[in-house]
Design brief:
488 residues; alpha/beta; Rossmann fold; 7-stranded parallel β-sheet; binds 1,4-dihydronicotinamide adenine dinucleotide; Adenosylhomocysteinase
Length: 488
């Protein structure tokens, strides 16, 4: 029997395979983990439900997990982020277009929200699992926490007949999630409780997903162990910063073709992503203004040479506005009405609630014009002398993935090497009780290992500690070289 899947177009697989081949060359971390572990197959028996942007880089991650013995089902964690050719190549795998033999992928660029939650449910719905729970997923690999949330909400729904927040359909999306749960449970009652009982752990990719895990752990509602991949130094200090430094200008340029040099760019948030965003815009010759709520980050921005201001006081100055906070309601409809004509507004924080898109759509008389997919002009005061418009990228969702192709391979090799190591840790150890229902980070020695795997590709010559120097510093020659709380 063939594999089940739903993607845009299987015929794109050849183009996807070429890109994957080139990406492999740029992903030394993942490729050396393949070399180290493909004989011992530490993930044999792992059934991973993966929810992470279905890009070319993710294809290399998926095929690494498979090389290490795992079975995988995959969805994207964003409606716009799938690269359809990558999805096609992963589905075809070592098979052919007529007989695909790869991984079941449920992802395509430009999903509706209903389709998005259907794909999330598909990665948790394994063939045969309705009859035999042993055949369902036993691991989650998540980005932003939607797959983890679906399992938690589903289990809560089965236990209580209600989902906190969703019953009131507080938001359109919550209503859709509830509908997805109801349909899923009608087909297989008790499904989510069974899944939650089998999941050995989740490895979480991003700041926003980690925030959700920490909230559940604090409330005592986390149903399985979690590894916070984001806070590996080789993830957040690289992907969030250097990744965005590459993919933010890429998204703005592909979306608008506007010259960034000389413009005023307002970057909301000066965390890891904000630092990379501000540096990229300055690198293009923009004058960058930062907004922050944290005095430490505000001071850092000032010391790095940026003006730090409240958004309200620079609305009329900014040509481009970028949110990077992971918070909500950062740019409101009122803010957008106060911006200059043709100001560009975009978000690179995980969810679309950083920019109040619902409030924008509700402005009386506002008109939305599609310039091209994922680029929209919103016109205020049509037909009046004061008519003016702003440009919103990717409907307020991650613009670096919606308008471009996300972070490049080399930086994702760092992030995804952490993911693979976290999956091995949880799969091989959580069953023995070495991890409890809490949120962990990987040990520093493994973080250093990930960095080490990427040095030779860049021609880095690492200095070795002498035993005498190591003794003097109180370190092991082989590391770890820093205390757990060192901030880099
Ligand atoms: P972070 O916590 O390091 O930085 C966020 C910053 O925003 C903090 O310094 C915080 O003080 C600030 N902030 C919060 N509310 C604010 C407000 N109202 N106004 C101004 N500043 C405010 O988090 P990080 O790692 O930078 O991640 C930010 C977001 O980006 C998260 O949602 C994360 O999941 C996402 N992310 C997106 C990526 C992409 O490819 N687009 C890659 C990595 C992370």
């Amino acid at each position: 029997m063939g594999i089940d899947y739903k993607i845009a177009d299987l015929a794109l697989h050849g183009a996807g395979r070429h890109q994957i081949r080139l990406a492999e060359h740029e992903m030394p971390g993942l490729m050396s983990l393949r070399e180290e572990f493909s004989a011992s197959k530490p993930l044999a028996g792992a059934r991973i439900a993966g929810s992470l942007h279905m890009t070319v880089q993710t294809a290399v991650l998926i095929e690494t997990l498979v090389a290490l013995g795992a079975q995988v089902r995959w969805a994207s964690c964003n409606i716009f982020s799938t690269q359809d050719e990558a999805a096609a190549a992963v589905v075809v795998g070592t098979g052919t277009e007529a007989e695909p033999a790869g991984v079941p992928v449920f992802a395509w660029k430009n999903e509706s929200l209903e389709e998005y939650w259907w794909t999330a449910e598909q990665i948790l719905t394994w063939p045969g699992a309705a009859e035999d729970a042993e055949l369902g997923p036993n691991m989650i690999l998540d980005d932003g926490g939607d797959a983890t949330m679906l399992v938690h909400l589903g289990a809560a729904y089965e236990a209580t007949g209600t989902v906190p927040g969703a019953e009131t359909a507080e938001s359109h999306e919550q209503g859709i999630v509830l509908g997805t749960l109801r349909a899923s449970l009608a087909a297989d009652p008790g499904k989510f409780t069974a899944i939650a009982g089998k999941i050995l752990g989740v490895s979480e990719e991003t700041t926003t997903g980690v925030m959700r895990l920490n909230q559940m752990a604090a409330a005592g509602t986390l149903l399985f162990p979690a590894i916070n991949v984001n806070d590996s130094v080789t993830k957040s200090k690289f992907d969030n910063k250097y990744g965005i430094r590459h993919s933010l200008p890429d998204g703005i340029m592909r979306g608008t073709d506007v010259l960034i040099g000389g413009k005023v760019v307002v970057v909301c948030g000066y965390g890891d992503v904000g630092k990379g965003a501000a540096e990229a815009m300055r690198g293009q010759g923009a004058r960058v203004i930062v907004t922050e709520i944290d005095p430490i980050c505000a001071l850092q921005a000032a010391m790095d040479g940026y003006q730090v201001a409240a958004l309200e006081s620079v609305l009329e100055l900014g040509d481009i506005f970028v949110t990077t906070t992971g918070g909500k309601d950062i740019i409101t409809a009122t803010h957008m009405q106060g911006m200059k004509n043709k100001a560009i507004v975009g978000n690179v924080g995980h969810f679309d609630n950083e920019i109040d898109m619902a409030g924008l759509a509700a402005i009386p008389g506002v008109q939305k014009v599609e310039i091209k997919p994922q680029v929209h002009e919103w016109i205020f005061g049509t037909g009046t002398e004061a008519a003016r418009s702003i440009i919103v990228l990717s409907e307020g969702r991650l613009l670096n993935l919606g308008n471009a192709t996300g972070h490049p391979s080399f930086v994702m090799s760092n992030s995804f090497a952490n993911q693979v190591i976290a999956q091995i840790e949880l799969y091989t150890k959580a069953g023995n009780g070495e991890y409890s229902k809490a949120v962990y980070v990987l040990p520093k020695i493994l973080d250093e290992k990930v960095a080490r795997l990427h040095l030779s590709a860049l021609g880095v010559e690492l200095t070795e500690l002498s035993p005498a120097q190591a003794g003097y510093l109180g370190l092991d020659v082989a590391g770890p070289y820093k205390a757990e709380n060192y901030r880099y």
